[in-house]
Amino acid sequence: MNADEKRELLDLLSSCDPSDFVHLRDRASTGGLKNVLQFYVPLSKHQLYRIWAKQKALTLSEPPPDIGLADDERVEDAGLDEDETFSQAAPALKAFLQRERMTV
Predict the structure, then answer these.
(1) Each residue of 49-60: pLDDT tens digit?
(2) Residue 53 CA to chain centroid, in angstroms?
(3) Res. 33 pLDDT band, cuts 50 70 90
(4) Are 1 and 9 in contact (CB under 8 A)?
(5) The pTM is what?
(6) How do the domains of the chain map onto residue ranges?
(7) Concatenated DSSP letters of 30-67
């Protein structure tokens, strides 16, 4: 992309809400810019929930990496791996996963 196309891309993206990005292709001046704009269209919630569920399953199935620290040298992560936060922050995701017969 040249400088003019980059400027136009920024102008288009800043002109509307992300939910309206799907309509920006009609306003783009070049074919190259129209092709690039397809990557800015947000995924549907259904697609996001599937990605999150797959990522969670992968994270839970992988053993923690061995970084060569003894247990007494490790620092707590302030609960970043706790499932409680996940359950409180994403009730819609939990409901979706239950409908899909996946476990949270």
Answers:
(1) 999 999 988 888
(2) 12
(3) very high
(4) yes
(5) 0.51
(6) 3-40, 43-63+79-104
(7) SHHHHHHHGGGSPPPHHHHHHHHHHHHHHHHHSPPP--
CB 8 within 8 A of CB 28: yes
Residue carrying the six token digits 């259904």? 46
- Residue 81, both tokens: 């791996």
- Give the Cα separation of 96 and 63 in Å (integer): 26
d(CA 30, CA 21): 16
Task: Tell me if 87 sits within 8 A of 94, measured CB to CB.
Answer: yes
Count other C-beta atoms under 10 Å from residue 33's C-beta. Answer: 19
What residues contact 30, with CB distance under 8 A and at least 6 apart? 5
